[in-house]
Amino acid sequence: MREVRIPSFAKINLRLDILGKRADGYHELRTIFQTVSLHDELRLRASKSSEISLTIHGNEELAREPVKKNLAYRAVDALRRELKIRRGVELELYKTIPSGGGLGGGSSNAAVALFGYLQLLGRKLPMAVLLELAASLGADVPIFLFGGRALGAGRGDEIYPLPDTAKLALLIVAPRDIRVPTPEAFRWLNAPLRNAATLTKLAADPKLWEFCALSWSAQGNGLSNDFEKPVFKRYNRLDQIKRVLLQKGAAEASLAGSGSAVFGVFPSPTMARRAAVGFPHDLTFVSETVSRDRYLRAVKGARVVR
Question: Does 80 lie in the same domain as 22?
């Protein structure tokens, strides 16, 4: 039986600035996403039934959750409704990206489920339609339709691809016993309520000019994350991880999204591997940044097994 196997890459945020809380309850942000080589794998097969089935390997907690809550399931379900297809599909998700780490694993699974299901069907959809479907599934899903380095605006779902930079060696550290609830992390920010006019005036803020300069920088350095202060205040262990990464030779280190994973940028993969030894009680992943070209070749040229 024909099977599509597609990698589902994680992401980090090289920069994450929260500008304020909007009238609709969401937060206005500016972020620079970067896809990384740490990845899950999604396998899709046609089914004789009319149902969507999902089997999850490598994450028992996720496997126990109601299947209809899973973003990969929801993505395929949304795409079936868009294409008016009743045929069933079998999904197998092999998890490596830790859940609740701010690495975008669920969002990535959703985006590649859209790509993978279209490949299984031999169908295509305009990018505008895919973007609409992706944004309806979650604010971080659209970035995984592009990969590489990209600016996220609005809720993070307005995506503007940026020039890729030289490949970076990374060490990602994910504590086994800490999960940072994203809604709580946003509340801890205590961001001021901003109307549209106020947000427009913020364009004069030096912080935004600094953000613009970083977006187009060929070096891509200058990690910054507004979540660090409130999250580190409540989870001192995460602050300690960042400090140890710097002590072990990381040029820079930062919280991934709202946490709980923390990553360091190292001069070489060898140094990243040596540093990983210092975190015996945590999950560690030696990784590297993935350019847009490499990303799209991987997800759009997924393996087809017969």
Answer: yes
